Amino acid sequence: MLFSRFDGLMKDQAKLQSYIDNALTPIVKSLKNEPGLGGYDVINEPSGTMIPGRRGSSSCDQTIGLGTYGMGWVGRFYTPREIQR
After folding, report:
1. Is 1's pLDDT higher than 60?
2. For 15-23, which contacts have Cβ atoms below 8 Å and span 24 or more sequence positions?
3. What is the pLDDT of residues 13-66, one digit of tens each?
4. Closest CA to 66 of 56, 53, 51, 77
5. With contact defined as beta carbons under 8 Å apart, do 8 and 82 qualify?
6. Which of 2, 38, 71, 73 could form a disulfide with 52 if both were Cys (CB 3.0 to 4.6 A apart)?
7. Does pTM top 0.85 for this prediction?
8. C-alpha to C-alpha distance for 81 and 49, rounded to whole angstroms
9. Cα–Cα distance between 67 and 54 in angstroms, integer?
């Protein structure tokens, strides 16, 4: 499954930090003076990989109120907390 490749970034803090340090930070630094850059899209449509109908300890950690609208259309892999890291 294509999205299983992202498990390291979503679930392993050391791999995520390595990606930030070795890929994202150098890209951002190299483009910092680019006048045509309007912003960065860090992750596109994360809701497609989120687990719908999830209860959590706060509103930032649950998807129960969203129903299934727009959620899990690629697969049901990640919690809101995993996406927010």
Report:
1. no
2. 16/85
3. 899 899 999 999 999 999 999 999 999 887 888 888 888 888 888 888 888 877
4. 53
5. no
6. 71
7. no
8. 12
9. 9
Please list the residues that pair with 50 across neighbouring strands.
Answer: 78
**What is the C-alpha to C-alpha distance for residues 66 and 82, in angstroms, rounded to an integer?**
17
- For 45: left if phi > 0, alpha if psi spans -120 to 50, otherwise beta; the answer is left
Return the structure tokens found at 74: 């690629």
The C-alpha atoms of residue 10 and residue 79 are separated, in whole angstroms, by 9
The CA distance from 33 to 74, in Å, is 36
Q: Which residues lie below 8 Å from residue 17, measured CB to CB, with a gap of 6+?
A: none
Amino acid identity of residue 8, one-letter, is: G
Report the amino acid identity of residue 47: S
